[in-house]
Amino acid sequence: MRVLVFVAAMVVAALPGRGVAQDVPLVGGWPGLPAMLADSTVERIARNPGIFVEDMVTMILGHGQNGRIDAQGFDDAVALARARTRARELHRFAVADLDGDGAVTRNEMEIAIRAQAARSKARLTLGHKAADTDGDGVASRAEIAAFAEATALRELGPQKAERLRALISMDADGDRAVSVDEVIAAVAAFRAAAASVAGGAMPAKSARSSDRLRL
């Protein structure tokens, strides 16, 4: 993973004019970018093109092949992200399953909570309450599995998954895959068009945590 991040950072460092873009009202769509892209994706690119390119390159190197990612690669990225979320939630319950029976009682959760930091205590408490759907004080194996799955789908739901899959529209040469060069070219074209509309270079603007693709 460190290698992927380093390579992605090197690609971004080579981008001309890495300054973060200002929000710019564009007339007639988004110049330089495919119409299929969600407005929220375009807005992230406008706010911080460098972060977007870095995340895309990381995704291509991590889930693609030969420097490009196809539709299956995007599906794999979504599936892996959801699997990691499920595993994270299952682990939280597993460390509180003191007798190893696959279920976590309220008493077991209280014992586990004592050893946790304040934020972790809150997560465990709220997680147990949410998982215990029948209110009997025990989060059963089935309830824990259902809670983990629901959390995974909530964090990366169908709409976000479709926004990610729409990134395949950045395929410029029609080979049904998106390459690093195509991402860089699309973002550069957008930046040039947006700068032209803005009447020159766009001033820097602070990035938001929501600008990350987070996969």
**Strand ordering within the main sheet:** 1-4
Shape, per Cα inertia axes? elongated
Structure class:
mainly alpha
Q: Give the biggest beta sheet.
A: 2 strands, antiparallel
Overall mean confidence score, pLDDT: 80
Kindly provide the radius of gyration, computed on alpha-carbon positions and rounded to a whole number of angstroms. Answer: 21 Å
Secondary structure tally, helices: 9
Which series of helices and strands comes N to C? HHHEHEHHEHHEH
Low-confidence stretches: 1-29, 200-207
Number of strands: 4
Q: Beta-strand level of the residues, as a percent range?
A: under 5%
Q: Please give the alpha-carbon distance between the first and last residues.
A: 12 Å
- The percent of residues in helical segments reads 55-70%
Q: Care to describe what's here?
A:
The chain has 215 residues and is mainly alpha-helical. It contains nine helices and four strands, in the order αααβαβααβααβα. The two termini are 12 Å apart. Mean pLDDT is 80; it is low at 1-29 and 200-207.
